[in-house]
Amino acid sequence: MRPSGRQTNEMRKVSIETGVTMHAEGSCLIKCGNTHVLCTATIDERVPPFLKNSGLGWVTAEYGMLPRATNTRMRREAKNGQSGRTQEIQRLIGRSLRAGVDRVALGERQIVVDCDVIQADGGTRCASITGGWVALKLAVQKLMKAGDVISDPLVDPVAAISCGIYAGQEVLDLDYPEDSEAGVDGNFVMTGGKLIEVQMSAEGATYSRAQMDGLLDLAEKGVAELTQLQLGAVS
After folding, report:
1. pLDDT for 79 beyond 80
2. CA distance 11 to 228
3. DSSP summary character for residue 148
4. Closest CA to 86 of 112, 115, 122
5. With contact defined as beta carbons under 8 Å apart, do 26 and 134 qualify?
6. How sure is the predictor about 78, in pLDDT bands with cuts at 50, 70 and 90?
7. CB atoms < 10 A from the CB of 98, how many?
8. Alpha-carbon distance values, 27 to 11, 121, 202 (Å)
9. Beta bridge partner(s), residue 169
10. Could you read off the pLDDT of 7-18 as tens digits, one per residue?
11. What is the pTM of this model?
């Protein structure tokens, strides 16, 4: 039995509320159980120097956790003093979202997606990617409405879910009690039914090819459910 009482293939309750900030071109608050992440998207008509005069757009991300997002207070991170974990997660979010973007159609501009964890209970990077895409989509819709972008540069939704082996069972969408004790922990990022990235490692026990296939099946189910929620949020 999972600590939450969920079935092995059951996700936590997920909700996505859009338009939660008045200034950002796109914003949403995504709640995956007790993990809550505020995602905003900002349009910048400038691109990084290495893309200047290339005609290509760019999507990047920043990630952070509020001091009391966890059960004990963390020190607030300055940008030049970010932990390796924070840097790794925001790079994952950025490259995951870019995988679903036609950068030619976006045009020579940059969209910055900020993901701020308000409350953490496992799966913060996956929630950030899933909510980050919604914020990104809303910002792109504004560009299209203004006529600044002709065709939609976002081909398919990008979403992510965690899966792992807890108490010997393959389970979908780990919360913190499961994540902290899982024998195997994995994060799956997908778009259009195809994989973008898989981060998976044994935390205390090895795993078989059959178990990995089982986790991938769970991830596909979870991402399909998240995709429907994303599309509903931006429609």
Report:
1. no
2. 14
3. S
4. 115
5. yes
6. confident
7. 18
8. 23, 21, 35
9. 166
10. 999 999 999 999
11. 0.97
